[in-house]
Every structure is written in C-alpha cells, then in structure tokens.
Amino acid sequence: MQQLCKDRVVVITGAGRGLGREYALEFARHGAKVVVNDLGASADGSSVVAGPAQDVVDEIRAMGGEAIANNADVADWDGAGSMIQSAIDTFGGLDVVVNNAAILRDRMLVNMPVEDWDAVIRVHLRGTFVPMRHASTYWRDESKAGRQRQARVINTSSSAGLFGNIGQTCYGAAKAGIAAMSNIAAEELSRYGVTVNTIYPSGTTRHTEHLLKSGRLSVSTDAVEGFDAFDPANVAPLIVWLGSEQSEGVTGRVFGSRGGRITVAEGWHAGPRIEKAGRWEVAELGERMHELVSRAAPSANLDGVIPGRA
C-alpha cells in the first residue's frame, strides 16, 4: 500500500473515540506520526475519564506506527499550545492539524440554558480556533525561515451548521462558524503553504445516534450488501488524503462524507434579486418580496439536498 503521509506529523483532537479514532488509525497506516489528543470527556462534556487517547496510541504502536497521547483541553490556550508543541518536540515538526473534538448539548432554543450555549461554543468554535492559531504561528515562522511546509488544516463542521437541524441552535451556530472561519483562514494562510478545508462527516458516534434513530439522516439504497454506510471508518480516507501532499491546491472547500459518497458543498451565494435605481419604499416591497422568494431555491434538507433537485 502506498503510504500517502509517510513521516508527516499529525495532530488530531478528539481522537480517542468515534471519527477521530478512525482518522488516527488511518493516518498511522499511511505512515504518519500521530499526536492523539483526547480529554476523555463524556458526550456532553460534563465528566472526564482517562484512557481513550492512550488506548488509540497503543493500537497504533501495535501496528508498528508512531504515536503519543495528549490529554489537553483544546479550548484552553496553554493546553492547546502544549499539544502543538508536543508534536514539534517529539517528532521534529508539524504538518497536519485535524480539529475534531466535540461535545453535544441539544436543547430547543426556548429551553436552552446559557451555560450549555457557552460550553458548546467554547469546545467547538474556540476549540478549533486555538489549535489552529498555535499551529499557524509555527507554520508562519517556518515559512519565514525558508522551511515552508506542505501544511494542512482539516476542520469539522456539520450538516446541522450548514443546513440546519431542530434542537441544535448552539451546535449548529458553532459548526457554521467553523466553516466560515476555515474559509477565511484558507485565504490568510495560503502564503505560508497551508491549506484549510472543512468536512461535515456522517458516521455512527455518540453524537449522531439520535439522528440515525430518528431517520433524519438517510442511507443510500444502492450500497453493496454488508456495507455499513455509517461506519466512521468510511470518512477516514478523505481526511488522510486532505492531509497528504497530494491535496496541494485544494483549499477553502467544505466536503461532505457518508458511506461511499463524497460531496463538495457549494455554500452561500447570491441568488435571484430585484433592483431599482433608488431606495425602496416599504409599501413597494409586499408582492415584490414574495415573488423574489418564490424564484429562490428552497433551503437544503439535512442531507444538503435541495428538494426537487437530483
């Protein structure tokens, strides 16, 4: 097997379980040296247990790979800084950061405690910004020193953030923010040889079980027999490819991955419009606004599909 990430140094947050664990194992299979970060938090972030990160490290070492465990809080400035520095000190550099750490505290807007809002925004949005901030400083300094790396950032959004999902106002807001932040970072960091892309993955994890049970996430009916479309391992090949040097030039994109399907999301863009030479009067807008909205595409569903379109 061709090892696309031979000797590349990769930091993955939230890599003790679920999707992150599969990313770490796949990077290791492709020759990467992996920092497995996981605080060991419960699904809602309310409790912490030791062990998940080291368990994945043990799996990687058992297959002959190189890895170290890290238990830092990704949203803590010093903790995230030490996580990035541990990669540099242990393996001699840094090439890839995969921001995957997550918690979930779903509530309807009218019932949501502000503490839940703050916790989710902190882990997802701040917990993506802080590792990326520390890593980008390192890559900027390397570039200025004439040692520009083929660096990669892969951030994690969600269909809830891109397309909306009832009961996930805080989670969706954080994930939408991550997609926007990533696209801007892609522009800012390109001068240092860094690409920044975002994924919205689908897989059976602690955070998606309720969506699968509710049927709000659909499964393709044309999958081969015995293939589990929601196995988290299905997402890992895309992540490893995005972390490899082969992905040079691909940046500022948002990719969906489910089963054997990879999608490029096309994001916000200007649609139909009405226009006049001067300022509109309120009384003029009634029928014109209804007509304008009727010409716009319907909002996409949770799968990112616009109703009525293939």
TrEMBL record:
One of its GO terms (molecular function) is oxidoreductase activity. SMART domains: PKS_KR. Keywords: Oxidoreductase, Plasmid. Residues 8-208 form the Ketoreductase domain. The keyword NAD does not apply. Belongs to the short-chain dehydrogenases/reductases (SDR) family. This is Short-chain dehydrogenase/reductase SDR. It comes from Cupriavidus necator (strain ATCC 43291 / DSM 13513 / CCUG 52238 / LMG 8453 / N-1).
